[in-house]
Design brief:
By secondary structure, the protein is mostly beta strands. It has helices spanning 2-21, 25-36, 151-156; strands at residues 41-43, 48-51, 62-68, 78-85, 92-98, 107-111, 117-125, 130-137, 161-165, 175-181, 201-211, 214-221, 230-235, 241-252, 261-273.
């Protein structure tokens, strides 16, 4: 009898622990009203689906993949996706805008997750509807992970970028592209392993990708994007042209306040595309 009682108590504690771990209070009490006050959000994987590891191997390099389930047509398309990490010190990961010329509203990137948290993606379609998908990620310390001993070398490479495309670009179809940006993306909570000082935040805050001057991907990003950001996305090349990335960075004294941030540099990278 005693063993049964102890067993029941253990099961209850395990269940309560699981519920506490997968806590949605930050979303329900703050984030939902902060970003979507008064709006209805449909929780479903029917429009977008988020793929993320349940347990992250590296909390500073957590892979996220967002897969769209509807085509990008002029009549209806995904125009914006907001990504949040509920329990991060600054939950806003980024906001990503798409157009019918994107071909697909798919996106992949690496992010920092600071503690056990839901990571969620909320899509807004061109008709104003909101759809949310989420994954619970077990990670710890992603925002405070050490910068490393090669910060000077990283700063020398600051702003360098390159595109990667498949060898057989198909005209008139959605083709995958990848943009690599060299940037330490300092969070403002990391210690320099050489000086032992905590560096102020310094991160890529805006990325605009276009093809022949037509917008493909517009991103507003923050400290949760990993060091050396890279983004996988799609675009439709109807003919030969120029794929262009324009991006900028900023620095802030506080890792979580955006009241007194300073604009940094702007950078450009181009690639000639011949389908």
């Amino acid at each position: 009898m005693i063993n049964k009682i102890i067993g029941a108590l253990c099961l209850a504690l395990i269940a309560n622990g699981a519920l506490a771990a997968e806590d949605e209070s930050a979303w329900t009490s703050q984030l939902k009203d902060q970003f979507f006050a008064g709006r209805t959000i449909i929780e479903s994987d029917a429009v977008i689906e988020l793929d993320a590891p349940y347990r992250a191997e590296d909390p500073a390099l957590v892979p996220l993949k967002i897969v769209s389930k509807i085509p990008q047509t002029n009549d209806r398309y995904i125009k914006k996706i907001l990504v949040l990490a509920d329990k991060n010190p600054f939950p806003y990961v980024g906001e990503f805008e798409f157009t019918p010329d994107s071909g697909k509203a798919d996106l992949a990137m690496r992010v920092r997750v600071n503690t056990y948290s839901f990571v969620r993606a909320i899509a807004e379609t061109s008709d104003g509807q909101l759809y949310m998908t989420k994954k619970f990620v077990k990670a710890s310390g992603g925002c405070s992970a050490p910068i490393g001993a090669d910060l000077d070398a990283a700063m020398q490479r600051l702003g360098k970028a390159k595109f990667r495309l498949a060898d057989n670009i198909k005209p008139g179809e959605a083709n995958e592209a990848q943009l690599f940006i060299s940037h330490p993306n300092i969070t403002g909570m990391q210690m320099d392993q050489v000086t032992r000082f905590v560096k102020k935040s310094h991160f890529v805050n805006q990325v605009n990708v276009s093809f022949n001057d037509k917008p493909i991907l517009t991103a507003k990003t923050d400290i949760a994007i990993s060091a050396d950001p890279n983004f996988r996305f799609y675009f439709i090349p109807e003919k030969s042209g120029i794929l262009k990335a324009e991006f900028s960075d900023m620095s802030c004294q506080s890792p979580t306040s955006r009241a007194n941030c300073k604009a940094g540099q702007s950078f450009t990278e181009t690639l000639a595309v011949k389908p």
